[in-house]
Amino acid sequence: MGGEGKSSEPELDASTVVEAGASGARRNDPDSAPALEPNTSVSALAIGEVIGEGGMGVVRAATQLSLARPVAVKAPHEGASEAEAQRMLREAWVTGFLEHPGVVPIYDIAKGRSGPVVVMRRIEGDSWSERLADEKWAAESGARDLLEQNLRVFVRICEIVEFAHSKGVIHRDIKPGNVMIGAFGEVYLLDWGMALALGGEAKRHLQPSATTREIGGTLAYAAPEMFDLVDAPSSERTDIYLLGSMLFELTTGSRPHKGSDAERIVSIDASPPHVPEHVASPLAMAIRRAMERLPHERHEAVAHLRMEVLGYLRSREATVLIERELARDPRRAELLLDETPGIAPELATRVRQAADAQRSEDARLAQLAHDHDDRVGRRARRIVIVLLGVSWTTSLPFGERLGPVTHARFVIGSLIQLLVLGVAYVAAPGLRKTLYNRRIFATIAVVEVAQIGLFASASIFGASVAFARTLQVGVWTIAVAMVTITLERRYWPMTALAGAAFCVAVAAPELRTYVGVLAALGFVANAALVGSSK
């Protein structure tokens, strides 16, 4: 037990319990951890093993005994300079000042022989730099691919930096290696040792950015003003450049400034870097603007860069939906396209073409349905067919009373029926509107012409009228059968009746008139029923 400067005072080791109070702290391992001075901490810590080590110091696992909670203890390396100690204190103050879920909370600061000892939350997780190419991590996080997952993390880093800027603090060393990904998806921005103050309360503990020309930073990501390559102080736009450098790495797989230190300085001075063509255009534009050589040409605020990346993520999600709908219904895909800016031109062209093709197909199908809609012109069609059927029916039993039955008489009768059919077709527009009606009336017209040809040929070759009339029933049987097969299946009763009538007429010519009347009546009844049904 003793005060400051006693060489016999033990240091912290993995088994030490640090007890702070009026009488000081007891610990072991004089080769490593710093000694705490009396009255500098209210914590009692059980110090564990080293869990991390960096340029500024060593981080050990510990337990805060008063609350029985795990913590991390960070202390400078043995023999650290005053500047390094001050940087650690500055980082501790900044992280304590910035109360944000993305900034590691500071629980306590103590003073040891080698410098400050910082007690903070212990984070279980990995450095983002170790996860940048981890496809499994992306899949377990629910992202569609690695780029989406990394961009999600990037957006959260932007939110942390935005918050810091609102509190008057700039980070100046933003890079994947300074980002920690927690075991449950937490995102922390670490290493605030290079932070500067923009104004406000931050100026009480940090150097002002406007008058500080401190050269330093990570060359692979650094902005030109961080190495006096442009005449401008560090500012919010310095952090924007660093975010742009990270975005470059996320999208290309490499850091923006590569090679030796001298080559990296040349690369920084030549900002913005060339962005490969495979990088999506919205991201490439965001990178180039964020990494402009002159600060005033970059985004005005981190929020602008964040919104551009969020816009890309949303358009990417929309692209997936559009691709999905494109396979299902191109018209819905086109509606989504109209509501979503920033969709790739190639996809937009495919969607427009597919939607146009779908509309053309829909129009074709609609026209086809209209052409085969028996409801169009139904009334006129029924009247004409019934009148023709009645004329055929009455002509069979009563035709002989009007005079001798000759070939010429049947030719003239067919011509009259053909004329009536033509007048009805012209007078009733509904009969011309659909393919259904046009084909039925074309079939009737062809049959009438066939009758004319039949009786004319019979007259020329000396065949009897009776023989020609029997063939006439056969012609009508064939015609009705074709209509039933190609247009209207509901005409099958008249087809069957006409076929039976033809067979009877061939087998028993004396019954030809009666079966003909029966077939004609069946034709009228069938046509009337089909015409009136819905």
What does this molecule look like?
With 534 residues, the chain is of the alpha+beta class. It folds into three domains: 17-122, 2-Layer Sandwich (Phosphorylase Kinase, domain 1), CATH 3.30.200.20; 126-316, Transferase(Phosphotransferase), domain 1, CATH 1.10.510; 372-532. The chain is 52% helix and 11% strand. It is built from 17 helices and eleven strands. It has helices spanning 82-97, 128-131, 135-140, 146-166, 236-252, 261-269, 281-290, 302-328, 330-339, 345-371, 378-398, 407-427, 430-433, 435-461, 465-486, 492-507, 512-532, and strands at 17-19, 44-53, 57-64, 69-76, 106-112, 115-121, 125-127, 169-170, 179-182, 187-189, 196-197. The chain has a six-stranded antiparallel sheet with strand order 1-2-3-4-6-5, with helices on one face. It starts with 16 loop residues before the first strand and ends with a helix. The model is unreliable at 1-40 (pLDDT under 50).
What characteristic shape results from the CA principal axes? rod-shaped
The proportion of strand residues reads 5-15%
Largest sheet properties: 6 strands, antiparallel
Query: Numbering strands along the chain, what is their spatial order in the largest sheet?
Result: 1-2-3-4-6-5
Number of domains: 3
Q: Which series of helices and strands comes N to C?
A: EEEEHEEEHHHEEEEHHHHHHHHHHHHH
The percent range for helix content is 40-55%
Per CATH, the superfamily of the largest domain is Transferase(Phosphotransferase) domain 1
Taking pLDDT < 50 over at least 5 consecutive residues as the criterion, the unreliable ranges are: 1-40
Q: How many beta-strand elements?
A: 11
Overall pLDDT level: 83
Distance between the termini: 106 Å
| CATH architecture field of the largest domain | Orthogonal Bundle
Radius of gyration, in angstroms, nearest whole number: 47 Å
